[in-house]
């Protein structure tokens, strides 16, 4: 028994693993392990029985957590957008833009995946939408099945890291950090990961062009009556929008200065990107609207189509991320506005009815309940684990690793990578992250950077063969049997499960490369955060003393306490009955009392004593 009591924390953790291996749902495994080892620990005298009395208050705290309200809001927004046909329009339009070049359809899937990630934040909705729409087109025109499967699954998982990501909300909650800061830190890494995907497709287009053929001429539907492609006017509109965006980005500090009425010298990078992008998009929308209203004929069909299709998702990006980054709204408020805007867009496009709305609400309720039950189980487990000094055991285990911070980060990321084979990001966020966060903080690691790093690593949980959820989502919509294509009337071979697995492997390696890049260059995350305000307390104390003591040593004109009644400003009036203080010209003046001229109850003296500064001599 003594051995069990001494090693209670590692035994408890091993017990949780046993519950999970037996096949119980994660939420119930966590709760069962917590309650079982809680009552057993009380019987063995490991901790007092009062530990279990804290549990109801902890559970009430979960339900009172405002931050977690963002989870159902963003989920509802993503599901409504997926059912309103926005993904279909984006894939159709962006595919026409990039189609004429080799790998163009794959590039379109990546860019649309990034846009869906920045508006929905739901992996399942992105993967299923792109699998239903893009996969048949890519198979129709001869794309390699492995690449087509891998690029769709990987692009859908961008919703894990590009804000507004659900995993970032959970990560911020578990690490005790702001969701807005987590979003700011993940913004640039998310689009860098998208850039690595693009680079991989470009490499294949150069060295293995047969894997990524271009879209044939007959499949390019947005052509002019005279046969022109319409790219020139599209390039002009994009050029004007880019010039406006660059101008806004370079003069963002000046705009803040004008708006706030005080000088602003630095603006966060993510804020520049979002605001500049929205400004450039607004100019393109104005040009396209004038061209359509007044029938000027200056823009091609392709240019108009691209402009009007890209406006809704970019508007949502500004409404959600822009308001969060600008400090106008909290993530919860941004999610609520995004859900309302998605509802309005869905009904305005006449693609959303009450049946689809009920489906979206039901799916949102299921996911929110899933998160709540996991949090209840995780809270029960962590309460008992902390009472058994589990965090100290984890800390001693990880701080003794060789290599300091780098060694800790490497071991933690290897552990997360292998756990992701069996657990998804919800389970990892609630089981592992609370144990690692305090250790990382004690080692001097920035928790925002640490959270983004783990989020990128957890992204692989969706791509791991054979248990990756993104692969399951794609398998559910990929063709399992031969079928006749409705456009070309050719027989299309099915996509096998092994082809999906093989296609995912290169993108898992790319995600691991991104993890290494973030470890080597933490400034990618921390550089996007607001600079911390450093307050010099010594300087503050000196300024307060200067206000309290003028050059004459009395109550100056700037003294917040003012001149005492009966005395003149700049001199201290004696209390009734008190001895008149001696002047330097009086040789036999008695020494000043220890309490000083202020008196023992003087608030100014008490303030100076708390600052550790003696009052000026009278």
From TrEMBL:
Give the transmembrane ranges. 7-28, 67-85, 105-135, 147-171, 186-207, 228-253, 273-294, 306-328, 334-352, 364-385, 405-426, 504-529
| Record keywords, A-Z | Cell inner membrane, Cell membrane, Membrane, Transmembrane, Transmembrane helix, Transport
Q: Where is this region: Disordered?
A: 549-618
Start and end of every TRAP C4-dicarboxylate transport system permease DctM subunit domain? 14-523
Organism of origin is Comamonas resistens
Q: Where in the cell is it found?
A: Cell inner membrane
Pfam families in the cross-refs: DctM
What is the protein name given in its UniProt record?
TRAP transporter large permease subunit
Function of this protein?
Part of the tripartite ATP-independent periplasmic (TRAP) transport system.
- The UniProt record lists the keyword Protease: no
What main location does UniProt list?
membrane
Presence of keyword Transport: yes
Write down the superkingdom of origin: Bacteria
UniProt cross-references to InterPro entries, sorted A to Z:
DctM (IPR010656), TRAP_DctM (IPR004681)
